[in-house]
TrEMBL record:
Pfam families: SBP_bac_3. Residues 1-22 form the signal peptide. It comes from the Bacteria. It comes from Inhella inkyongensis. The keyword Signal applies. The keyword Nucleus does not apply. PANTHER family: ABC TRANSPORTER SUBSTRATE-BINDING PROTEIN (PTHR35936:SF25), MEMBRANE-BOUND LYTIC MUREIN TRANSGLYCOSYLASE F (PTHR35936). This is Polar amino acid transport system substrate-binding protein. Keywords: Signal. Residues 26-250 form the Solute-binding protein family 3/N-terminal domain.
């Protein structure tokens, strides 16, 4: 996960009317810096997930205060009862986060990664042994499949962000970069790297990312209501328009099984 040096100020991201503001105090929500989903720019917190959950919550009469925090700090604040929710969280490999967080049935998106390579150095992933002798940029703090983490026949080089991983790849400092599919697509489009970088087609470590609600603060029912509202919103035209503004295709967020 990306680790930041200081606690950034809370940023109001609710989109509700004044009447909705009067009904309920804003929920305190944390996310890590993960463009285009969540990031800090121009003095405010923004991104696809920020806009999405703010709109859905506005329909429930609830506003949000979203901050960008280091992931470990966000989990600590959850345990201490400081936060109401976190964005972009998985249930955990053994559903170990269920005791602390209430999860809606509907995820924000499906998360999976690709191995990115330079166009002038083609690569085809066909099992872990195709990584033999390679230098692979990975995101620091992330849990990877045990066999990937334990393999000794290739090198893993930690990066603070996916963008840093791709820049290492462009510079020839690594042979491959393991990057979240939607983030990689967004960065390649934003930076104009489409002629230089390619993604292997194989999806790596697919999973689902949610808005997780604090059980300690009594938000289990809100999690259920949010899930139903999110499902309805994602069926409508506004959601596809929102994805288009961020340069993302619905099938990328739906996952490789869709």
């Amino acid at each position: 996960m990306t680790l930041m040096r200081r606690h950034l100020p809370w940023a109001l991201s609710g989109l509700a009317s004044r009447s909705a503001l009067a009904k309920a105090a804003p929920l305190r929500v944390a996310a890590e810096s993960f463009p285009p989903f969540t990031h800090q720019a121009d003095g405010r917190v923004q991104g696809l997930d920020v806009e999405l959950v703010s709109r859905v919550m506005a329909g429930l009469g609830q506003t949000l205060e979203i901050s960008i925090l280091p992931w470990k700090r966000a989990l600590l604040d959850l345990e201490e009862g400081v936060l109401d929710a976190v964005l972009g969280v998985s249930r955990g490999g053994l559903n170990e986060r269920e005791e602390m967080l209430a999860f809606p049935d509907e995820p924000l998106s499906t998360a999976y990664s690709h191995f990115y390579f330079r166009a002038d150095r083609p690569f085809l992933f066909d099992g872990l042994f195709t990584l033999k002798g390679k230098r692979v940029a990975v995101l620091a703090g992330y849990r990877h499949p045990p066999d990937f983490s334990a393999a000794s026949y290739f090198q893993r080089e930690a990066s603070a962000t996916h963008e840093q991983s791709l820049r290492k790849l462009l510079a020839g400092r690594v042979d491959l970069a393991l990057v979240h599919a939607a983030v990689g697509e967004y960065l390649i489009q934003r930076e104009g790297w489409s002629e230089q970088l390619r993604a292997d087609a194989a999806p790596i470590a697919p999973g689902r990312l949610y808005m997780g609600f604090s059980r300690q603060r009594g938000h289990a029912l809100l999690a259920e209501r949010f899930g139903l509202a999110l499902q309805r919103y994602k069926r409508g035209p506004e959601y596809r328009q929102m994805l288009a503004r961020y340069g993302l295709r619905p099938e990328v967020l739906a996952g490789p099984q869709a």
